[in-house]
Amino acid sequence: DIERDEQIYNSYEKLTSQLPIRRDWSPFDLQLFQSFWIPTKFVPPCMAIQAHFNPRPSDILLVTSPKSGTTWLSALSFATLHRHSFSLSLSDNPLLTRTPRQCVPLLENFFFHRTIPNLNVLPSPTIFATHLPFSLLPESALRCRIVYLCRDPKDTFVSLCHFLESWMISSTEHKSTTQGFDLSKAFQMFSQGTSTFGPFWDHVLGYWKESLRSPEMVLFFRYEEMMEDPVNHLRRLGQFMGCPFSMEEERDGVVEDIVKLCSFDNLRELEVNKDNKGSLEEKRPPASSFFRKGKVGDWVNYLSMEMAEKLDAITNEKLHGSGLSF
Ligand code: A3P
């Protein structure tokens, strides 16, 4: 019903226009919606998700703060869930010809085009990626299993800066905004909590606390630990998603094969993931911007000691007493 959807989105846009806005975090305006800073164009989709997202209990949500490893987790989950439909080594695997984001689309993007989609026509189960904070999820989403992946805020911040910069450079409509990225301003904003789907710490804490309350519904992963032992994490992921690896699969090395297929080095070399055309206007980052270095601790190359200490101090203060630390 196009007319009904139009009316719904018009009312969301009206509400959005009344929210506090920060214009100085380049290149997107952020708006404060229910205590989180959401890119303006994503606010109406978030409202629509809250009111109209009605997933099946079999569906799976992959949640991250942007740049915490969404792409990697998407590839691993997709390859694991569909390992009986596609071969892992032959060319029929969708991950060889489509980006991980195309295989596991962002939930927000389904609601981006001023329509209320019927997602229950998708195959069951469907995996959705999302950046929505826990407190913004509709109650219906709590029926689904949720995998949350977080990453050291220093690396997340550095990754975010590079991502936004390469997106700006790639975007044909915004050639005038490519004078370079203002790292110190971005740092100030990030530290204050004014970052995409931030405050970063509140985002992590929401899911951390829920994972302690309901470990059977929320699986909490960390990028650094996954890098250290991807095979064991993939085993836990398969188990959690309801498709554990059998003894036969273990013996045949299926877990290792999936880890290899989804590794940074493998995915980055694929033609589909090398595409460097993007658009800020259409909220379409270039595929290549999701594969930069894939390293733990790369922040040392970009942040001064003072900046690192400041972020660490904020992290310690915010996470104090939660049982979580970076
Ligand atoms: P860096 O910028 O530090 O390299 P997201 O997918 O949430 O947007 O996060 C992107 C970050 O994850 C980038 O970090 C990117 O390089 C890294 N990444 C992408 N694919 C990966 C993979 N298969 N394994 C490990 N890291 C990966």
Automatic annotation (TrEMBL):
EC number, as in UniProt: 2.8.2.-
UniProt xrefs under InterPro entries: P-loop_NTPase, Sulfotransferase_dom
All copies of domain Sulfotransferase, residue ranges: 57-323
GO MF entries: sulfotransferase activity
EC class name: transferase
Domain of life per record: Eukaryota
UniProt KW keywords: Transferase
Family: Belongs to the sulfotransferase 1 family.
This protein's name: Sulfotransferase
Organism field: Dioscorea cayennensis subsp. rotundata (White Guinea yam)
